[in-house]
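Re: [help] complex structure
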Amino acid sequence: MGNPMKIRASAKDGVTEIKILMSHEMETGQRKDANGTVIPAWFINEITAKLDGKTVMQAQWGPSISKNPYLAFKVKGGKAGDKVSVTWVDNKGDTRTDEAAVT
Amino acid sequence: MTQAVMERRQVLTFLGVLAAAGFVVPQAAFANWDKTAFDAKTMDEALKALGAGAPANSGDVQVVASDIAENGAVVPVQAVSKLPNTERIAILVEKNPNMLAAAFDLGPDTIPEVTARIKMGQTSNVMVLVKADGKFYAASKEIKVTLGGCGG
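Output below.
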């Protein structure tokens, strides 16, 4: 279980903007440590974002997403108080879900 | 050695090979991940795995990013589609070891404007691939990288 995500969601003029900052190493599997041993790949590869219980975005990621990934997108509709829920799964099978309310 | 023991060994070895290759994964949620597309080492392979073939260049697809990225480890990229019924947006980096960085599947109410931060090993074209109404469109932009983001 990784560290909590930061989720900000705000509704304005009928559009909800969702910004997510995840906490993850996003190791590519191409770097080597001081001894020359390859550091195994470790990265988030699936994300599901829901607004008010409805899936609005599903993403698949490779290791070339930056460490501590940032993701932002907009959805038509949504209002203050609606629940945003974001789940990630990494390639080691670890997973985390966080929620926030639209402001 | 009996036949039964032999078979058991072979099965165990086979499972071990599968696990090592990453086919046996601990969670069912992992199953959607498009391994073929993410493992692709050339643009043609990646596009083929995504079902895109040769996407048409479109002015309605935009790669929004600065021309120069100082740090290749963190390159902010916004992928924008102005095409109606955009279902999917993918970001590909031509000169990364694996081209495909991300694929986003959008819900019907999701506006096709996605911002993410990607790693780039070197100066490269970044392609945004869009699937709209079942057809593929693309646009590319070169982003110059001063400091690579994939080495150790």
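Residues 6 and 12 of chain B are 10 Å apart (CA to CA).
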